[in-house]
Every structure is written in structure tokens, then in C-alpha cells.
Design brief:
This protein folds into 2 domains: 109 residues, Arc Repressor Mutant, subunit A, CATH 1.10.10.10; 38 residues. It has 4 helices and 8 strands; from the N terminus they run E-E-E-E-H-E-H-H-E-E-E-H. It is of the alpha+beta class and 151 residues long. The protein has a 5-stranded antiparallel beta sheet, covered by helices on one side. Strands 5-7-6 form a 3-stranded antiparallel beta sheet. It comes from Scandinavium lactucae.
């Protein structure tokens, strides 16, 4: 799962469905649908304007044709509200009857995946433990040799 640094001070974690402000440690837990919508917006932000139909299809698939504009409007409102709580105002702007686009003043930076860091820590710990066990085993063998050589 991906993580993004938004506006230099908020980390959006797709896996946890949360946004955390790094300045004041405020955390917003999002519903799965809100998180999916925010992910879709972020992933498609470079294309400029995200068409309303494209957004609806990206979130609901074929069922999107049966989703009312009010559902999408409510979803976008709740995401804006979550972001405002963290100090990110006007993350995206509505273009009437067209869609939305990310505010040019907002930065989005993809962060390295946590899983890679976790795997590295696990491997690093395993190597250190193997080294320690090897040293202990070596000392045990040397002690056995000393005992045998005295007899």
C-alpha cells in the first residue's frame, strides 16, 4: 500500500485508511470509501482535471452509472472536511459540471513503502541474532576444547 506526504506535514496511509498530521499528531481515520476516493484523486492528480464520470467509475465501477451526483458530492465534502481538520484547506477544487482538480499550491509526495522498511528491519535483526548465536556457539566450542585438552 502507498503512503503520501501531503502539503509537507500530513501523511496519508492507504493501508490504514488514515491521515496523520506530523506537526501535531492529529490522526483522522477515514472510511474505506473516503480513503479509496482520496487515493484515486491523488493517483490521477497529474492528469489535471479529473472528470466526474471518471471519478465515479473509478470508485464504483459499472455501478457508477446508478450513483447520484449527491453521493459523490457528499463523499468529496467529507474528504475536504477531514483534510481541513488537519490544516489542509482547498486540497482539490471543484470545476462546475466537469469534475475536480488538485490545488496547484498543494504538494503531494509519494513516500517509500513501509513494508520494505519492515522487511529490512526483520532481516537486519535476523542477521544480528545469527551473528550473536554464532559467537556464543564459538565460545561454547572453545570451552569444550579447553575442558577436553585438560583431561
Amino acid at each position: 500500500m502507498k503512503r503520501y506526504l501531503l502539503n509537507h506535514n500530513c501523511i496519508y496511509n492507504e493501508e490504514k485508511n488514515e491521515i496523520r498530521n506530523t506537526d501535531n499528531a492529529v490522526i483522522i481515520k477515514m472510511t474505506a470509501m473516503r480513503a479509496r476516493c482520496l487515493s484515486f484523486i491523488i493517483e490521477n492528480s497529474e492528469s489535471g482535471v479529473i472528470d466526474k464520470q471518471q471519478l465515479t467509475y473509478g470508485l464504483w465501477g459499472e455501478r457508477g452509472q446508478f450513483i447520484s451526483d449527491a453521493n459523490l458530492t457528499q463523499l468529496l465534502y467529507l474528504i475536504r472536511k477531514d483534510l481541513r481538520t488537519l490544516g489542509i484547506n482547498d486540497f482539490f477544487m471543484t470545476i462546475p459540471r466537469v469534475g475536480i482538480r488538485i490545488n496547484n499550491n498543494i504538494t503531494i509526495e509519494k513516500l517509500p513503502e513501509e513494508r520494505l522498511k519492515r522487511r529490512y528491519k526483520i532481516w537486519k535483526t535476523a542477521i544480528v541474532m545469527a551473528f550473536i548465536i554464532s559467537i556464543i556457539s564459538l565460545y561454547a566450542v572453545l570451552d569444550m576444547i579447553k575442558l577436553l585438552s585438560h583431561n
